[in-house]
């Protein structure tokens, strides 16, 4: 259902855009055609000279929107390559179709949980419809930049601080959808939006650092307590095993002597057999 709604909304926007363009590319009228015919005759009569003013070239990544007596001549932009214009009646505007990127200046934004943060980002967009980008907005590039700043404030104003710090991908996607929908009538396609940096106030940074340190200390104490508990359980099991087997106690005694003898100390130990000690231990 969401896909169908999006397709219908895009279709409606496309139809409204075509209707607007068709209104702009209406008939020139009787007087307009007379002027165009006179301009064409003048162009033919002075052909060797006017060829330099009539012949235009646009690059592969450019398109030309031609205006004839103030009206767009066709629903499709010209280019790439060579095209002709009438010097007296025609004018054209070159539109660059390459992807353009710009930085969103750092914005002081109040989040949903009343924390002031400074956020900046970057936006990548391109012109998808040259005619709409010329006829429907004064400056598509500048308008997109301003709209990106306001969209960033609106989107982050509905997020908590934790969401701003952890869900950057979701915020970028929301901004891209909002920008793309708003700039569709301008012939602009927003390809990507990225959040570059989130700066917190100094007091908030200190508070978060103290909270993180306290959480780490609590985890360290829990881990140490679990280690002590596991060690005590292991010692209990070892004592039960040694109690059941006297030979195990003798081996443990010899191992301890070996460990002490390996160290550099001035203490000399004369071990006694455990059988002799056991006689006194029973008494």
Automatic annotation (TrEMBL):
Keywords of this entry: Membrane, Transmembrane, Transmembrane helix
Keyword flag Transmembrane: yes
Membrane spanning stretches: 31-53
Domain Band: 53-212
Cellular localization per UniProt: Membrane
Coiled coil (residue ranges): none
InterPro entries hit by this protein: Band-7_stomatin-like, Band_7, Band_7/SPFH_dom_sf, Band_7/stomatin-like_CS, Stomatin_HflK_fam
One annotated Gene Ontology cellular component of this protein: plasma membrane
PANTHER family, A to Z: BAND 7 PROTEIN-RELATED (PTHR10264), STOMATIN (EPB72)-LIKE 3A (PTHR10264:SF87)
Family: Belongs to the band 7/mec-2 family.
Protein name per the record: Stomatin (EPB72)-like 3b
Organism per entry: Myripristis murdjan (pinecone soldierfish)
